[in-house]
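cron nightly-structures :: item 1 of 1
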Amino acid sequence: MNEPSRASAPAASSPPAPDPVVAQPKDPLRFLSQVLDYAVRRRASDIHLRVKNHPIVRVDGTLRPIRELPSLSMSFMEDLAQTIMAPMHWDKFQEEYQVDLSIGLKGIGRVRVNVFYQRGTIAMALRVISTEIPTPQDLGLPNLVNEIVDLERGLVIVTGATGSGKSTTLAALINEINFKYAKHIITIEDPIEYLFNERRSIISQRELGVDATSFANAMKATLREDPDVVLLGEMRDPETIQIALTAAETGHLVLTTLHAPAAAETVTRIISSFEAEAQPTIRSKLAQNLRAVVAQRLLPKMSGEGRTVACEMMTVSALIREYILEPLKVKEIADLIKKGTFAEGMLSFDQSLFELVRRGEITEEMALQHASSATDLKLKLEGY
């Protein structure tokens, strides 16, 4: 049998056409300024830079590529990383394969940057920090949250997912204290985000890797620095939690953040981060010193432009203290928040969502999607 004819096949295969070469920016800082300017004009919350990708921005929670700008090469990302890093940051990056830092750019302001490796190449996640610190009213925070600035002592925790605006809420509260009271405020951050202009208070801002080696070490030193108010960027581990509680116990107001979905879960997360034998002591300290927990989520506005905040607020009452001390009752704290009133310092997520719908800021569909009890909220929205 004859073989099939191969006359139509080329004598030798042609090499594949090379990918088109996209001209890379020559000046890393100028390019970064372009990206950040684009992000600011479109009110993007975050920027992502990755090898073989166009710059990507997150606008109202949605990721969008900037196709007008070129995709980035490995060599350009390395140049950009070395350009924005101080030698100590570069050394840390080489050792740990990730680093946090903040930079200031003319005409843009401060930018928080996380540089990391992914699939063996350098990537960055950036966030522009507004030069103007918003007020609690600008952020749409409930009056209950704003009352935190009048506390003299104790622990206040702002909780929520990454990107839910925790740092901005804390900055707004710190600045309110700055305007109202003559106090010494110490911030411990990784990295420093908002820069405060001193008004009635004096403000000492400390950055990890620049002014301190760790949150725990900075907190220990803070107790010897005559503070009235301490802003601790994050309670990352049991040691930091323990020192934050000690600072609150010794008469200071400590404001900090924690990753937890709601106020009641915050209490459970703190206690469970300790070994079983240490938990009774932590329960006692938490019950005595915790003053409030604010949990927040950012939701798209009905207008389609921007996002608004939904808040849950737990003010620690005598009954809440009792529940914190009793392992079997901790789970009932969520019900106390749900049934509590504004007068008791309580605001549930569902109450907050109801108010946002009533004011026309979010759709009913969005509210029900994020409700703790969609059935109960739907009935309330229908007037039952």
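cron nightly-structures :: done
The chain has two domains: 28-129, 136-347.
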